[in-house]
Amino acid sequence: MALRHFFLILLVVTLWAFNNVAIKWGLLDLPPLFLTMMRFVVVAAILVPFTRITREQLRYLLPLAFTFGFLHFSLLFVGLKFTDAGTGAIVVQLGTPIAMLLAMAILKEKLTLVQIAGIVTSLTGVVVLAGSPTIPAWWVLCLLLCSAVGWAVSNMIVKKSPAIKPLTMTGWLSFLAIPIVGLASFILEADQLNSLVHSSWRGWFGIFYSAIFSSIVAYSLWYSLLRSYNVNLIMPYSLLTPVLSVILGVVVLGDGMNSFKIIGALLVIAGTAIAVINLRNLRMHARLPKFRRLR
């Protein structure tokens, strides 16, 4: 891999990891569902005017607006209101092994014994993490797990959907999710506009960072890298995101560490790595001539 591409990968996972810090700052001034909606408003305003979708694509984007826009993002933001940045990132990482289990049950995809062992290890990590004081109540853990399930279900829908360009999907998902999340905020929250008007830099930073840097910039760089390199070479780097989230949470936000959090994080990340990293494909990719890999 070219050195500049390696640093681009590190930049992307750092942008994603710092997003949890930005969200925590935003939540100091804004209600979580309203913050989620404002994120979607910014993303949609930037991307939708420059993208188009077909009626067939819309059939799949509508359920995605609920599973990805509401279940994943909204519940993640609400969960982060009550726990620290690192813990939230660790639990949501379970979206990957959950997606693999759903693919086995729904799409009849086969899992190897190694992959099953990795998934069991990840789930064990969440059991350990549940004992951490950074998760103040069982329902907070349930919110984060539902967020991970929302991400996993969204992957199943994407697999069945017609081809949609990544930024087109991001923009229209955001646009279609605005009324769903907005209605939830209207019913469950209060004084949203006043909180926005009187928000400090933290609230606005949370909105714009999550929308522009974590979503548009990071995903644009990520997909450009996927066009140049094998997926099996790039995807394992995404496992650095929860690790960096924990570190940034401690350094920037002053989050605490404890044995439950450390052991749980190690089990979740190690289990996910075992489940998703295809060592044989990596070895095959490493043996390919450079001109073939970059074609």
State the oligomer.
single chain
Percentage of residues assigned to helices:
over 70%
Averaged pLDDT? 85
Structural class by sheet pairing and helices:
mainly alpha
The stretches of 5 or more residues where confidence is low (pLDDT under 50) are 282-295
**Biggest beta-sheet profile:** none
What portion of residues belong to β-strands? under 5%
Task: Provide structural commentary.
It is a single chain. By secondary structure, the chain is mainly α. The protein has 15 helices and no strands. The protein is globular, with a radius of gyration of 19 Å. The protein starts with a helix and ends with a helix.
Secondary-structure map with pairings?
Layout: H1 3-27, H2 32-47, H3 55-82, H4 85-92, H5 95-106, H6 113-129, H7 138-160, H8 166-188, H9 192-197, H10 201-226, H11 231-234, H12 240-253, H13 259-276, H14 279-287, H15 290-293
Helix pairs in contact: 1-4, 1-10, 1-12, 2-3, 2-8, 2-10, 3-7, 3-8, 4-12, 5-7, 6-13
In short:
With 295 residues, this protein is mainly alpha-helical.
Give the tags.
295 residues; disordered C terminus; 15 helices; single chain; globular; mainly alpha
